Amino acid sequence: MKIKTLLLAMLTIMAGLSFTACSDDDDDNESNYVIYQKAVSNTVKSQKKHNKAILLVAFGSTWQQAYDAFDSTIDAYKQQFPDYDVFLSFSSAICINYAAAGENVEPRHFYAPNYWLNAFAADGVKYDEIVVQSLQVIPGEEYTRVINYIKDFANNHNGDLDDAYLANVKLKLGVPLLQDADADVAAVAKELNTLYKDKVAKGVVAFMGHGNPDSYDTYKANVRYTQLETALQKYNKKYFVGTVDMKDNFKTNVLERMQKAGIKSGTVYCHPLMSIDGDHGHKDMAGDDDTWDEKNGYEVNDEGEVEDTSWKNFFSHYGYTCDDSTMIEKGLLELPTILNIWMKHTKEAIAGEPLDYYHSKNPEE
After folding, report:
1. Average pLDDT in the 11-21 region?
2. Which of 117, 176, 268, 301 has the CB geometry, 3.0–4.6 Å to 315, for a possible disulfide?
3. pTM for this one?
4. CA distance 38 to 115
5. How far apart are CA 55 and CA 171, in angstroms?
6. What is the SS3 assignment for 319?
7. Taking each helix axis from N to C terminus, what angle separates 64-80 and 336-351, rounded to the nearest 10 degrees?
8. For residue 241, what are the β-bridge partners?
9. 3-class DSSP state for residue 133?
């Protein structure tokens, strides 16, 4: 599944160069950068009500369920932070292009964080305080991109912003869901157990995170999945946490751990451990792709993973009850008590000192 997704993504990047968010005949001689910046700046100027702004940064998606989750998250933030204007950005160019092209749903336009930050600093806007809240789950590769966007903004990377303004604006960063190895992992485990203790009493609850390949395991953030499984198993030994992209923690490894624990039959509930239930949740977890061969079973790749096969079909072929009825298709932003942990990070950022963007907010372990 990942190989096909990668090839499609590469094609999309090439094709996406022709996509524009708001082009018309008058814009033919303008670059996409200028067009996008105008669109975002116009949005910010028309919606500005306060002198402080929160920018939520998600990787992105092209599923309506994800869009609904993002929209409800914006609404929740506006209620929780009434003195702030709240906006949402995507960090993934692929998702931005897919969304503009109408992949899966009606076309919708999203923009990268740099456009929003530039708009926040524009004449006639110039927010006194800017809070960037990462909607990443772990402090890994995508979180690093969020930090780099902030650094480029604070350092006036393009040289077109007001240096005097940048020297005085209060710039703050809200960290990912599982930033802290102790407090955040324990808090998320507690809330997930409260939500799913009834299901884990009837079978396995297997959470599917994303993870980073070893070469992109920034800050060694993959360890958060292992730490979360350990924390969850303090409540019940039938909780497991695997990923689609972390070596030694694929669905094949989850199966090994289950069988080693003596769980060789029964129901397996699957749940995306991602901010939204998007492509990975609908396809890698709950999709119909399957490479099962009646004679030879599954073929494992060099990393120990079975490609082009959903978690649903994988566990089903090993004798577990795992079907459409056991797919818990909810992203973490759709769980209010988990969203509250992200909001707690936002409150901590607001209460803290302005960001020392030279050192960022990288995890200690």
Report:
1. 38
2. 268
3. 0.91
4. 9
5. 11
6. coil
7. 50
8. 207
9. strand
Residues counted in the chain: 365
Question: Using CB atoms within 10 A of its CB, is residue 239 exposed (0-12), middle (13-18) or buried (19+)?
Answer: buried
How far apart (Å, rounded) are the C-alpha atoms in residues 329 and 143? 24
Average pLDDT value for the chain: 91
Interhelix angle 32-47/113-120, rounded to 10 degrees, is 50
Per the structure block, which two tokens stand in for 331? 């992203």
Structure tokens at 114: 């740099």
Question: Roughly what angle, to the nearest 10 degrees, separates helices 336-351 and 183-200?
Answer: 170
Residue 356 makes CB contacts below 8 A (sequence gap 6+) with: none
Shortest CA distance to 103 belongs to which of 190, 19, 165, 28? 19
Q: Which amino acid is at 95?
A: C
HSE of 351 in the Cβ direction (CA atoms, 13 Å)? 6
Nearest to 266 by CA among 193, 196, 201, 198: 201
Q: Which single residue is written with the structure tokens 């407090």? A: 183
Q: Residue 85 is inside which H or E element, if any?
A: strand 85-90
Q: Residue 323: pLDDT above 80? A: yes
H helices of the chain, in order, are 2-16, 32-47, 64-80, 93-101, 113-120, 141-154, 163-168, 183-200, 223-233, 251-260, 279, 311-317, 336-351
pLDDT tens digits for range 140-184: 999 999 999 999 999 999 999 999 999 999 999 999 999 999 999
The C-alpha atoms of residue 248 and residue 348 are separated, in whole angstroms, by 34
pLDDT in tens, 97-119: 999 999 778 999 999 999 999 99
